[in-house]
Every structure is written in C-alpha cells, then in structure tokens.
C-alpha cells in the first residue's frame, strides 16, 4: 500500500513535465503554422478585385462574362546553384509558393502574367541547372486548368543584350511558349508580349526577328481598329483582330529619367529615387520606347525590372505601371497587381503580401514569451511582487 502511493507521488512530477512539454510543443507549432501558412490567408483574404467603371452600366451576367480577372507579378528571381544558398533558397521559395497558391485559391483569377526575371541565374545556367530551376518553378507556380499562366522573358532569364544568345532565348521559349511579338487575346482584350531585352536596336539576329514580328502585329492591330467603311488596300487581306487597344506586357520599363516622381510605400527608397536610369540597362532606350508607343498606341503598359513600384504617364495619356518584385529577397513588402480588364476599360488594385519584418517581430515576441514561460515553470524567474515583498521586509529589518 505504501509502495503504490509513493510510486504515484514519484510519477506526478514526470506527468507535470510531460504536460508542460506538450504545451510548449503546441505553442511553438501554433506560431510556426500561423507565420508560415495561415498568415498568407489572413493577409490575402482582405484583397478585393477592383470594379471596372463601365461595369455599373452592364447587367450582372454580362459583367462577369466580359471582365477578365488578371494577376500580374514580376521578378520572382528563383535562386540558382551558383549564388543561391540552400537555406535562402528554401525560405524564399516557400514564401512565394505559399503566397501564389493562396492567391489562386482565394482570388481565382482567369489569367496570371509574370513579367520576367523568373530565374536569377538563367543567363548562366547549365542545361542541368536550368532543368532543375524549371522543375522548381513549375511546382511553385502550378495553376489549375481554369487559370492560364503567361510568362514573359527578362534579362536574368536570357542575359542582358550582350549575353543573350539564340540558344538561351530558344530554351526559354520552349518551356514557357514565349515569343516576342506574340498576341494573346482573351475576352476581346489584346495583350502584346514583348521581349524587351531584344529592343536594343543594333540589328542583332534576335533583335531583327523580334522587331519584325512586332511590326507585323502592329499592322494587324491598327487595321483591326479601323472603321468598317474605311477603305485601305493595305488592310484588305489582313486578319481582323478584336478592335481593342492593346495592353503592353514587358520586362523593362519604357524610358524615364529616374524614379524621382514615383510615390507610394513600395516605391524606391529615397536614397535611390534620384539616381539617373541608364538606357538599355535600367530602362528601354528613348528610341525603343517611342517605337513601341508608335506601333501599338497601348492603353496600358505593365513592366517590372526595377523591383519597386512606379506609375508614370507617357505622351500625357498612356499609363505605365512598374510592378515591384514578388520576392522577399528583394523587398520587405512584396505585392502583386489585381486587374479587372474589359475591351474598353480597366481597373487595377495592389495586393500586399505579409511584411517580413512583421513576421520576424511575431517570432521574436513568441521567442521571448517562450523563454519567460520556461523560466517561470522552473521557478527561475522571480515574480515582481515577491521582489517587492523582499525589499519591504529588508527595509523593515533595518
């Protein structure tokens, strides 16, 4: 009888320790699940598709059928084998995958555009490294059948102009079905895809082919926008396209002096805004920019490359939106653009992803609380009122 009672007493501390350990595991697991999984749902849940102004004059059925819901992001920069540390690679790719898949599940877009620099080392990658990067990309950015994915080439995918080769362009085209001068028409909306790296204007083989396709497409679009009674022999045998002014999609922004006029919380840092941009490196040349505007008269231009947000007007009427980087490696506050687009109008809204600094703050606060709980459990932390009581008793003794 005595032995059984003593055994029970001995087991009590063990049970308490196990119970405390279980509580710690639950606490740590809850913090990890929230910061690495649930936080993306909490943040993206607040993003809403913008309403198109013209939609108010249409019926509900007509509006839902005619509005194209598009997500636009840029500069994912998947790390490669040369410069990418495995831990950095694991962290950044997990963040982008969770953000992208959560956005697809919550927002259900019709189409997703990625505006170049998909890979960080595409310009250097060996065939084996390229295949590995592509495999990881396809896993991270896998889309359901109902959502189309369109990927545009950037300088980190095929190299700057002096690094660009037919081989690099070809392997990108094979994987992503990309062609400069390609037209994508969805719900009567024309999207023009541009290889902005090939807009050097020096007559290189890739540049000549790219510009020839753009000129031919420009002719088709211009003929399609003419009135039916307008007689033009040059347009008589041209395939007619939807008469909608196109949306231009490319990696490099059109020419602008700097980001000095850009504003917003995700614009360039103040110390970088006044740094002049270098033509054919930071932005397209003035000549190439004018060509694209003359050829297509776009109603909207979407670009990436700078990793920061900016909105500028070209020719006083054509808006260009520079989409910031989607990777936390480049920004503390990545985001993507949500666009509701019709053949005659569009409306854009930015959706911010979780701030990395806030995630770190949650981890630090949870770590501090965890330390306090452990110290309190082992009675290594003196409660404040005990400390005050000791001071009072010492004072009385004196």
TrEMBL record:
It comes from Sula dactylatra. Its main location: endoplasmic reticulum. One of its GO terms (biological process) is GPI anchor biosynthetic process. Gene3D superfamilies: 3.60.21.10. CDD domains: MPP_MPPE1. GO terms for molecular function: metal ion binding; phosphoric diester hydrolase activity. Residues 69-308 form the Calcineurin-like phosphoesterase domain. Pfam families: Metallophos. Belongs to the metallophosphoesterase superfamily. MPPE1 family. Keywords: ER-Golgi transport, GPI-anchor biosynthesis, Hydrolase, Manganese, Membrane, Metal-binding, Transmembrane, Transmembrane helix, Transport. It is a multi-pass membrane protein. This is Metallophosphoesterase 1. Its cofactor is Mn(2+). Metallophosphoesterase that catalyzes the removal of a side-chain ethanolamine-phosphate (EtNP) from the second mannose of the GPI-anchor protein intermediate. Participates in the glycan remodeling steps of GPI-anchor maturation to allow an efficient transport of GPI-anchor proteins from the endoplasmic reticulum to the Golgi. It comes from the Eukaryota. The keyword Membrane applies. It is found in: Endoplasmic reticulum-Golgi intermediate compartment membrane. One of its GO terms (cellular component) is endomembrane system. The chain crosses the membrane at residues 20-43, 360-381.
